[in-house]
Design a protein that fits this description.
By secondary structure, this protein is mostly helical. Strands 2-1-3-4 form a four-stranded parallel sheet.
């Protein structure tokens, strides 16, 4: 295992939970992911935790609570400064409509914060979001995608399966 650390987007936990790694069928995945989180190899942003700890009282929420880990607090001067740079980029980039900035400026939207934290702490940002292949100024988008914006800030993105391979999280 290398020294690479990961910051995980909520979709990289919600999608497997709801789709293919339910707790009753893939308990080893959740056990090993829990170990990776407790060891600090996988980090969780406070806004992501808030999204996951939504009062649903489902197995995912119970699992996260059982880990008893600290989440990365986005209210840090370096992170806030990087967050502002990200919003400025969205605002000034002709590939994005005004609605893009409006959406990413909302207090409960984790995407720009995830990029800011990954930039400051040099983590690989794990998300299932895919880049917008048609992003251009002739047809601006109102929906920024994490991989597109992260690339501008030299933040590495990867999907959950990359993380699993790097940390040797398998279903055995």
């Amino acid at each position: 295992m290398g020294r690479e650390t990961f910051l995980i987007d909520s979709n990289s936990l919600i999608t497997p939970f709801r789709s293919y790694y339910s707790f009753d069928l893939a308990s080893k995945f959740w056990e090993k992911m829990g170990i990776a989180i407790k060891s600090g190899k996988v980090k969780i942003l406070d806004l992501v935790a808030k999204e996951l700890l939504n009062g649903s009282d489902d197995a995912l929420e119970k699992w996260l609570v059982s880990l008893s880990v600290e989440y990365i607090d986005r209210r840090n001067n370096q992170v806030i400064s990087e967050y502002r740079r990200i919003l400025d980029y969205i605002q000034d980039n002709p590939c994005y409509k005004t609605e893009a900035l409006t959406e990413w400026s909302k207090s409960d939207i984790a995407d720009p914060w995830l990029i800011a934290v990954s930039s400051v702490y040099h983590t690989t940002l794990v998300t299932f979001e895919a880049p917008n292949k048609g992003l251009n100024s002739n047809s601006p988008s109102k929906n920024p995608k994490i991989p597109d914006v992260a690339a501008h800030f030299d933040v590495k993105t990867a999907n959950l399966f990359y993380l699993m391979r790097q940390l040797q999280i398998n279903l055995d």
